[in-house]
Amino acid sequence: MGKSVKKNYIYNLIYQVLTLLLPLVTTPYLSRILQADGIGMVSYAESIVSYFALFAALGIATYGQREISYVQNMKEERSRVFWETQLAKLITSMAVFAVYVPFVLLAVEKDLVWLYGLLALQFFSIALNATWFFQGMEEFGKIISRDIVIKLLLLVSMFVFIKEKDDVVLYVLIYSLSGFVSAVSLLGYLPKYVKKIPFKSLRPFRNIKTIIALFVPTIAIQIYTVLDKTMIGIITDNAYQNGYYEQAMKITKMVLTVVTALGTVMIPRIGYHYEKGETEMVRDWMYRSYRFVWLLAIPMCIGLSFVAGNFVPWFFGDGYEGVVPLLQILSLLLLAIGINNATGMQYLIPTKRENTFTLTVVIGAVVNFVLNLFLIYFFQAIGAAIASVVAETVIAIVQLIIVKKELSIVIILKSSVKYVVAGVVMGVVLFFESIWFSPSILYTLLMVASGAAVYFLSLLLLRDTFVISNLKTIFGRFLKKSAKGGEESHEI
Length: 492
Known about the structure:
The protein is 80% helix and 0% strand. By secondary structure, it is mainly alpha-helical. Helix 2 runs parallel beside helix 11 (239-275) and helix 10 packs antiparallel against helix 11 (239-275).
């Protein structure tokens, strides 16, 4: 197992950040051009299409990534897993597309058919996307190399072609095409990793029970990531509320990416050690993972809540004041999702306990749906934000209780103490800065920089061994340049 978790985390972090960095760069421009109601209209349509895309994906990629992690070093077995997984995705994607077309023609307003038609490219992207394979192989460098070029082209296209509010058609077309091109571009790497398998011997749905077991939590997750938007649209009948929620969630997800990027890297690593029966190694990696979540999620949660008031006015422009309280509430998702991502995705899924994972997510989905019915009615988008935070927190708590015999809750919580202390110190500084500084890009950057400096300085004064040991590793490699490839250290 010679692949570096640190290196793969960095690769995957870049990949995930690139996926969300484009909206960060283009949002100030697009929010002014398309305005809140235009953004809200597209957001609502995407929420409808995503339900169909959900059934097209069917949890197959998650299953494939896990299975590939078990057979990384066996070309025959991994080739079979690849072809069977891709064939399954192709079948489900085309089957759902066949249902989607008549739905659009019969149920969608005629003046919006173009929008749903362009978004249908998602089905073809799902069918061809092989990202899951390279994630399972822990080859994250392959993923990032092609994404940089595609994201840069997408960035340029937005500024070149989107000039007025009516260009929403081009906006959707460019986004949809970029997803398709991104999926296709990875296929050229495959011949090096897989070989041909006789078609007649392929059984794409031989593990359909496992696939469905992984699909159910995906449905549940969709309830509190996409259904929120649908329910806001239906209950409030206000495109602006959906626009506010979309923009707030977009920023939250971008920040969250830094926290959860390790999860994709850890799934194949935990799966590899679990398959070899190395229980202690699995437990050791998990405790490091939780500590990593505390290290990043606590300051980001506190920082986002205090910086929001300075950031939103200049970033989104006039008419987006409603995003500020949403960001302050949704910042709590960084902690909740960070923990349940570690417990659920990094531990329960690789250790073949998808049914347990499903149960916890379904509980959260039910909580979210019920709360949405009442909170959105009374508080609109703010109600949806509160419901999402509560649902994710419930999932995190339930999952920790379930694994308490294998992973000590006391050790997990105790590892957060120094990060909480440092976060509080940082929060005090940011509180006063939020009062003194008027909204501007300069002051926002100053708040981010000063907050980060205070936080990490506090950790050094508290002599946090996790941070110090990783800093020594980093500086040691720069100074000595003698680190051996493939060695696993005890830091992430």
